[in-house]
From TrEMBL:
Originating organism: Durusdinium trenchii
Entry protein name: PH domain-containing protein
Taxonomy, superkingdom: Eukaryota
InterPro entries per record: PH-like_dom_sf, PH_domain, PI-Interact_SigTrans_Reg
Residues annotated as domain PH: 1-84
Signal peptide (residue range): none
Amino acid sequence: MKEWRRRWFVLTPQYLCSFKSQGEYRNPTEHIRLAECTTVKSADEDTGKENSFRVDTPGRVFYLIADSSPDKESWIGHIGRQMVRPAVLVDDQGFE
C-alpha cells in the first residue's frame, strides 16, 4: 500500500469526494461514484490500522481511516445506504 495521506471527505447522494483541505471543497482529489460501488466494509485486518474501512469499485479499492470507531461505523452505514437505491417498478404499460 502507498503512504497514507490525510484527506477530508464529503458524501453526496451520488459521490464520495475527497479533498486536500478541510473547508476547501472545490476540486476533489478523488470522486467515487456510489452507483459503481460494490462493497463498503471494515478493513482493519487488511490494513493493520484501527478504524479503517474499504470502498470497493470494479476498477479500484479505496482504503480509508476514520478518526474513531463510531465515525468508522457511521461512514460505513451512510455510504452503504447511499449505495442502495430503491428500484422503480414500471407496469407493462410503461407507467410508474
